[in-house]
Amino acid sequence: MTEVGLIKRGTGQIADKVAERIERLILDGVLKVGQALPSERRLVEKLQCSRSALREGLRILRGRGVVETEHGRGTFVADLHKAAAATPMMHLFSSQTRTIYDLLEVRALLEGESARLAAIRATDVDRLLITQCYEAMLAAHENPEAHDPREHARLDHDFHRAISEASHNPVLVHTLESLSELMLSTVFASVNNLYFRPAQKRQIDRQHTKLYHAVIEQTPEQAQRAAREHINSVRDNLQEIEQEEQRLVRATMRLNGW
Q1: What CATH architecture applies to the domain 84-255?
Q2: 3, 68, 183, 215 - which has most CB atoms within 10 Å?
Q3: Are 227 and 111 in contact (CB under 8 A)?
Q4: CATH code of the domain made up of 3-77
């Protein structure tokens, strides 16, 4: 039943449907964390409801912690992962550097599947958004001095996130998003340690290109394999760097007579 048909019902029922519709827009990634909701007039038009039903629907969402209203600024999508990120377990994950390899294992599994689904389900709009992220990432790579490592990491993360959103599996997307800060830490580690090593940088570029074309050309098995190979390669390279550093420490200790 459309929102137009719902207008004939009581305001409370319409408000519940308004809240449900806005939640669906958030779940589908149409409205993102921190994004301002459209104006009241535009929401009334889009949802085909009364102003009173809209206001009641937003009140319901505020009570659930889904949206936040700031006086003079408007209503915004709340940070839905803030509570999860603050748990003691998430603190342990982020504070222990060795968990980066555990996280990369999870990334290989989840992003491999999201790439496979994206190759099957992506719409023309999804492919356009993926292309925009891919081209922005390439442009930054061509002039690395113009961007700091965190900016490179953000662009890299945006590319992978655009692919996950094209999977059209909200649970998968939000599972990845709930790990976004930890995910970003692995991407930053990759950028900080690998982008400035020519051989590894060329390898990453080739892997991103392979992943991009597999998704755009709608070849799901190749997309899954490309995503997994890319992340597993990052893991292997980071482990090799860590081992190199440990060998250097041991050699220096022997040189100093320890």
Answers
A1: Up-down Bundle (1.20)
A2: 215
A3: yes
A4: 1.10.10.10
